[in-house]
Design goal:
The chain is α/β, with parallel strands linked by helices. The strands form three sheets. Strands 1, 2, 3, 4, 5, 6, 7 and 8 form an eight-stranded mixed beta sheet that branches. The protein has an eight-stranded mixed beta sheet with strand order 9-22-21-20-10-17-19-18, with helices on both faces. It starts with 13 loop residues before the first helix and ends in a 10-residue tail after the last helix. Bound molecules: adenosine-5'-triphosphate (ATP).
Amino acid sequence: MVWAPEAPATGSSRLELLRRLDTGPRGLLESEAEARLRLHGENTLPLRRPLSWPRRLARSLRDPFTMVLLGLGLISALITSWGTAGVIIVLVAVSCALRSNGEYRADRSTAALRALVTTTATVRRRPSPDAAPREREIPADQLVPGDVVKLGPGDLVPADVRLLRASGFTVHQAALTGESAPVPKEAPDQPDGHGHGHLCWQGSGVASGTALAVVLTTGAGTLFAGAYRARRPASAFDRSVNDLSWTLVRLTLVIPPIALVLNALLRGHALEALPFAVAVAVGLTPEMLPVVVTTALARGSAQLARAGVIVKRLPALHDLGAADVLCLDKTGTLTCDRPVVDGSFAPDGRRDPEVLRWAALNAFWTLHLSDPPVPDVLDEAVLAGAPDLGDAEGVEAWPFHPVRRVSRVLVRDGGTEVMVIKGAVEAVLELCGQVPEGARETAERLAGRGLRVLAVALRHGDEPAPVLAGYVTLVDELAPNAAGALSELSRHGVATKVLTGDHPATAARVCRDLGLPVEQVVDASLLTDAELAEATERATVFARCTPEHKARVVRALREAGHTVGFLGDGVNDLPAMVAADVGVCPRDAVDITREAADIVLTHKDLAAIGLAVTAGRTSTANIVTYLRVALSSNVGNVIAMLVAGLSLPFLPMLPVQVLVQNVCFDAAQLAFAADRPDPRLVRRPYRLRPPTILRFILGFGALNAVADLSTFAVLTWAVGTSGQSAFHTGWFVENLLTQAVIMLLLRPATPVPRPLWLATGALATVAVLLPLSPAAGALGLTALPPASHLLLFAVVLAYGVTLAVVTRRIARRASDAPRLPVV
Ligand SMILES: Nc1ncnc2c1ncn2[C@@H]1O[C@H](COP(=O)(O)OP(=O)(O)OP(=O)(O)O)[C@@H](O)[C@H]1O
């Protein structure tokens, strides 16, 4: 998407703009900010505001099944089949109410946790007209037009802003303009009137540099809210549910015409059969699918919330359960991100404390001259490990840039200006005119010990190029439970790949210590795009990755058919996070990465990832059980109804009976959200596969149809075709009883949880008691003679035994597979 927004306030000078916004570089008065907040409202996107009940209900009407049901309801009303229309409306209302309620509860249960990870902004405000401005962090939703904010690497741009001052400032604005590389921004006093180089929009993230900016618009007024409707590309789960839904919708739409044509051809009364055809189509529709999906995923996410895992987007849980590859960054994820200085070396490998002093000077002035200060654990570690810094005075600083991979500081040292450069080894060596002999080997040797190696170079006065001063090494301890978590993931069928910006030798050593197979470390900086894509399958460790390399590896894996998760915490992880099927980050990740992540780990504990994977697979397995049971039964019924409709002189079941039976079955199946899946299913990546599900339901649907047709035979023999009402009742009872049976037999071979016992018990009770109840007359049901009951029970028993035998056979054939084929 390339989008060229209209730039607000383009062209006016800085002063004119500030005057127009009635503010100044010292920021707004607190009282004025409060008044503006009342006037403009909170700075939240309309998309993110909690939905009202009516809107929630309206949104739940939008899924394809509900649309189909409403269409069928309309047809029924047009042919004045009011009973059918009424039941359909009840069905739609119940499913929408359940779904809205499920979504509401899911939202509410994570809202409190989400508050823990809300985005903040550094704002400059004054308590009174004469007081000095104060800078403090406030929730980004409290910003108002005219506020003056500071931006640094990793920050989300919290509103539409114009830059007042900028240094080395680049932003990711791919979400708005589609440009994947960070875009440089500047703060000219008088912009040229055409470009947008002085504006940043809400929804972008700071890739590098620092800036001071004034807020132009907030909330619904931002260009992000007005112009950006596109979301991330559909995830694996969205695609699967969509495919499946549309296949079923197509199937549903062809059933009524087939029923009508056959009735017209064989009997010559198509229109009379219309309500029946409509009811049959309704019978095929798994209208509770959205409810079961929401409930199963919400249940999983509520359990995870107790373990400190926040699921920001429910379907992400399925995607994590489906992931067969998890890419992670190294620093801060596999290591503690509390580096400690180990040593300081000259290029030839001799110990040299002077190198550390220069590195510390760079760190000190980077921290002091950047505005806002850019917190950086490496800089803090270097400073903590350095003795005396001397009295060099900082002049200007260019903080660490994740693509250039160096930080630079200009200092005045005893009358001469020195540019102190510190950064990744190869990035610094590339800047140096000449590399001293043995310097590369020294770096290799240090990195091979698993140390993080920073190179330091100096350029005195107007020397043509920097000269390598040496290296500073740091130890970064492995995260205590990382090795265990990785082997747990591998046991659960998730391959891990480490994508790091660090040196190949450091990365290899760390990965080996963690027990990862490291036959080859790919140096991303040396490969072409095609070579990198080709290496993705075989390699485990990718070093010297820029943010774009990380994204490219993730995209190549997805193109090769993998479902990919990405776990990272830095600015350099954002493009990969967005490219993955599911993004995970720790709670202390930088704002932009946390905003892009689907799942946030509140404790820095990799073991939580394993829990989330299991919860995702459990939810998916329960959804699949629902689909198997619901659709096998529905398909069987539809086949039987079509066959019987043609061979009997009357409709095999009244439309209202088809629909009531449907409502009862649907309600009982909600219990599947709390089912216990086969533990073997949870041990490997598990995703919704529509073709396999469809094959399964056709097989078991046919078996179900055989049971139904046997019932017809029995009923015809027992009550004859003269007693229509007894015939209808017989089939109604048999149908509900077989549905109760398949709910127990087509589920995994794990102990049946209490809610499922209750649901199937209730279904069987309704089957037996409804024909005896006062509602029987209105539904066209009648009490059956005891002999018919016995016969029906015999059919149901035979069906149950056949089903048990078939499912066992399938399990035996795939001896290491679960009792039922994996779908
Ligand atoms: N503040 C800094 N000053 C100078 N050099 C740095 C600084 N931070 C990182 N580097 C260098 O740049 C390299 C790349 O950094 P980057 O942040 O992209 O990845 P990383 O932290 O090494 O690893 P990961 O990608 O696993 O998080 C680092 O390995 C280090 O050599």
